[in-house]
Amino acid sequence: MGDQFEASAYLHTYTEAVDWINGLIPFGIRPGMSRIEKMMEMLNNPHRRLKFIHIAGTNGKGSTCAYLTRVLLQSGYSVGTFTSPFITKFTNRFQYNGEDIPEETLLAFANRLYPIVEEIAATELGSPTMFEVSTALAILYYAEECVPDIVVWETGLGGRLDVTNIVFPVISVITNVGMDHTDVLGDTVEQIAFEKAGIIKSGVPVVSCVEQPGAVEVLRTKAEECRTTLYLAGEKFSYEYTGEQGPYQTFHFKGPFREYDVEIGMKGVHQVANAAGALMALEILRQYMAFVMDEEDILKGFRETVWAGRMEEVSSAPRIVLDGAHNPEGAESLRKSIERHYPHERLILMMGMLSNKHHESYLKHILPIVDTLILTEPDFRKKMDAAALHELAEGLMHSYGKPGLQIIVEPDWKNALELLKSRTEAEDLAVVSGTLYLISDVRAALLGQTDSEKGW
């Protein structure tokens, strides 16, 4: 497909294309649908030809996407998966049947979008952003190149004004609601729920594991307005953790159509809720949309789902676990997950954060179980200084810190990683947590990956 654009190649290599898209980052995240609508209109609305499962939520979006993708592939369907941020390489965002978009295909579609972006940039709408162009590229890829049976479609931020909301899905999923991106989405659970509920569409069933009464009310009101069914955990379906079976967590799922005993290979207390929400969405596909999925394939899919950087053990000597928990709810899950899955003598935690989050609440959840805290900085423009993080931790140590807690400040993450490795004895557990920008670099270093690009 690469040569059909030779005559008008604005960008000549994959690297140029990625640099061009990332070069739009200064235009920021500008909530609103006007630019993506204009791009789609100029491309003849390719998104209208696809079936989407649209996923929003504070935590667990990526894992839910991973479960849905794995089970649908196992059941013989072709699947597009659009997620962010990526862990290793820009192409990770755009997957088809579990494989990244080929570099030359990305280049070709970037060249299709280049003149359109320039044209819109010259109007009062202003330049489309990096995320808008990535979203348009994903739609083109799925609508024109690979045409999957279904696209698993993750929101970037919020829901109502997120550019991914251009699509009209067959199912919407809202995993949960927590305090994250409060600078953009509002600083109460209800305000954040309102933004997430923006993906609920007329007549499109919505699945959610949201628990806070105020947030549930927001979703319920929106579902009623849209005259659609809200499949809420605890009402229309339920799930109960039943223990460990070798390397698997097990849970019992009871839905409106059938019951299952499910095993999942992903660690973390929160993964049971993510898997249950994904299973409810799959049940709707099966029951109402003529998707054929055998129970055997469904269960095998859940068992085999993996997702990089989420309670992922990347080294056994020393034992190092990576987890992209970066908000209070994530920290609470991380703490419970460590207690459930990883017995240890001492816990050495290395963390790095962006500057726009609720780090005080995060530290309150995690400090009580940490023996050594190594504070570092992600290699990213919006990083939080390790010194500022240190000040926060120092202020909380007296009330929340474990007796004898030691804090080390090492802004260079590579040096911090060496410290982490050298201080972790055989019976100890090392955890790297915080922003995925840090996780992706550490993961690449530990797994010896050379083409790690990382980014939002």
TrEMBL record:
What the entry lists under InterPro entries is as follows: Folylpolyglutamate_synth (IPR001645), Folylpolyglutamate_synth_CS (IPR018109), Mur-like_cat_sf (IPR036565), Mur_ligase_C (IPR004101), Mur_ligase_C_dom_sf (IPR036615), Mur_ligase_cen (IPR013221)
Tell me which PANTHER family the record gives: DIHYDROFOLATE SYNTHETASE-RELATED, FOLYLPOLYGLUTAMATE SYNTHASE-RELATED
The EC code for this enzyme is 6.3.2.17
In terms of Pfam families, this protein maps to: Mur_ligase_C, Mur_ligase_M
What is this protein called in UniProt? Answer: tetrahydrofolate synthase
**Reactions this protein catalyses:** (6S)-5,6,7,8-tetrahydrofolyl-(gamma-L-Glu)(n) + L-glutamate + ATP = (6S)-5,6,7,8-tetrahydrofolyl-(gamma-L-Glu)(n+1) + ADP + phosphate + H(+)
Ranges for domain Mur ligase central: 55-281
Q: Which family does it belong to?
A: Belongs to the folylpolyglutamate synthase family.
**Cross-referenced NCBIfam families:** folC
* Residues of the Mur ligase C-terminal domain: 309-435
Domain of life of the native organism: Bacteria
Keywords from the named record: ATP-binding, Ligase, Magnesium, Metal-binding, Nucleotide-binding
Entries under SUPFAM superfamilies matching the protein: MurD-like peptide ligases, catalytic domain, MurD-like peptide ligases, peptide-binding domain
